[in-house]
Design goal:
0% strand
Length: 145
């Protein structure tokens, strides 16, 4: 008989699941943390390009949301910092990171949806990335201790 014990993690309901859903959920949450860090970096680049009024972004004066590019840039920059902080928090196992990540990713989806006329392909990719982040973080619970 082996003396090596396999650690068992308890689900929130209290049942231990060796090699089960909890390990997958934790791994997927770490993947979401990396996606949040990448999404945050992309948001910083989008924000800086918008604040600088770079020619890379298309200006659309005939759109319902009539914020100028500098305003969109600040919105994306703030959301990117929140998303990056949440990603770092999930990597560290902080309990505050999960709700912040879900909230920041949800707000980021709304912001990128409203930003679609300026940069549609980029916006759609980041909407999907943020939806994956939310999907990964909803079942995740940080380990205590």
């Amino acid at each position: 008989m082996s003396t090596h014990a396999t650690p068992h993690r308890a689900e929130p309901g209290g049942a231990a699941t060796p090699g089960g859903r909890t390990e997958f959920t934790t791994t997927f949450a770490l993947f979401a943390a990396v996606l949040m860090l990448l999404g945050g970096a992309c948001g910083v680049l989008t924000g800086i390009a918008s604040i600088a009024q770079d020619e890379l972004l298309v200006r659309t004066p005939q759109y319902t949301y009539t914020l100028n590019l500098a305003t969109w840039g600040w919105i994306h920059l703030v959301l990117a910092v929140l998303l990056g902080a949440a990603g770092a928090g999930v990597l560290w196992g902080a309990s505050w990171a999960r709700p912040l990540g879900i909230t920041a990713a949800g707000l980021n989806i709304v912001a990128h949806f409203a930003f679609l006329p300026h940069f549609p392909i980029w916006g759609l990719m980041l909407i999907v990335l943020n939806a994956i982040v939310i999907w990964a973080l909803v079942p995740y619970r940080a380990e205590k201790g």
